[in-house]
Amino acid sequence: MSDIPVGPKRVDASKRTWLIASGCAGAVGGVATAIPFVSTFQPSEKAKAAGAPVEVDIGGLQVGEKITVEWRGKPVWILKRSPAQIAELPKLDPQLADPLSKRNPSEFTPKYAQNENRSIKPEVLVVVGICTHLGCSPTDKLQAGPQPSLPDDWQGGFLCPCHGSTFDLAGRVFKNKPAPDNLPVPPHKYLSDTRLLIGEDGNANA
């Protein structure tokens, strides 16, 4: 298997504050839709600042819905995809820079998410919502179809408003975009069918 070329120098998102990311998205005015953080099961502010895992109840998450939680000062997106959206993911491989998430797996994609769904459960995507270009926060473009700044055959995903990088519904970056890597998948595991732990994986059993 040939090596995937290494893109431009990556930004260490852990060294950037999310305030900078949010400010970049806000600078374009009105593009992003504010999504409240989920507070269920979250630890104290002091514990979060220390990097404590965050427990999330996803029992009420509906197909097509995305919630955002904070972990280590970063936004973590949890999206429930439809069967049709999951079926479309393999068809996008030729358009993607790293379709199988082989690039920098220790940094961006743990072993249990090195698949075309980039997830433990096919229907649930868990990614850090920070663009790998300059640390901005992409906006939701979950609906398929032609839209401003997107191709006519758009199948849903995310658009970074700062420099136009686009990601599919698995957080995989499209070719010829400023972002060099896919959106990071944080360590996570299922405590039950409806409870996620962000920040710890263990065996990452579903």
From TrEMBL:
<keyword id="KW-0813">Transport</keyword>
<comment type="subunit">
    <text>The main subunits of complex b-c1 are: cytochrome b, cytochrome c1 and the Rieske protein.</text>
</comment>
<dbReference type="InterPro" id="IPR017941">
    <property type="entry name" value="Rieske_2Fe-2S"/>
</dbReference>
<keyword id="KW-0408">Iron</keyword>
<keyword id="KW-1133">Transmembrane helix</keyword>
<keyword id="KW-0479">Metal-binding</keyword>
<dbReference type="GO" id="GO:0008121">
    <property type="term" value="F:quinol-cytochrome-c reductase activity"/>
</dbReference>
<keyword id="KW-1015">Disulfide bond</keyword>
<keyword id="KW-0472">Membrane</keyword>
<keyword id="KW-0249">Electron transport</keyword>
<dbReference type="GO" id="GO:0016020">
    <property type="term" value="C:membrane"/>
</dbReference>
<dbReference type="Pfam" id="PF00355">
    <property type="entry name" value="Rieske"/>
</dbReference>
<keyword id="KW-0001">2Fe-2S</keyword>
<dbReference type="InterPro" id="IPR014349">
    <property type="entry name" value="Rieske_Fe-S_prot"/>
</dbReference>
<dbReference type="GO" id="GO:0051537">
    <property type="term" value="F:2 iron, 2 sulfur cluster binding"/>
</dbReference>
<keyword id="KW-0411">Iron-sulfur</keyword>
<dbReference type="InterPro" id="IPR036922">
    <property type="entry name" value="Rieske_2Fe-2S_sf"/>
</dbReference>
<feature type="domain" description="Rieske">
    <location>
        <begin position="118"/>
        <end position="197"/>
    </location>
</feature>
<dbReference type="InterPro" id="IPR005805">
    <property type="entry name" value="Rieske_Fe-S_prot_C"/>
</dbReference>
<protein>
    <recommendedName>
        <fullName>Ubiquinol-cytochrome c reductase iron-sulfur subunit</fullName>
        <ecNumber>7.1.1.8</ecNumber>
    </recommendedName>
</protein>
<keyword id="KW-0812">Transmembrane</keyword>
<dbReference type="InterPro" id="IPR006317">
    <property type="entry name" value="Ubiquinol_cyt_c_Rdtase_Fe-S-su"/>
</dbReference>
<dbReference type="GO" id="GO:0046872">
    <property type="term" value="F:metal ion binding"/>
</dbReference>
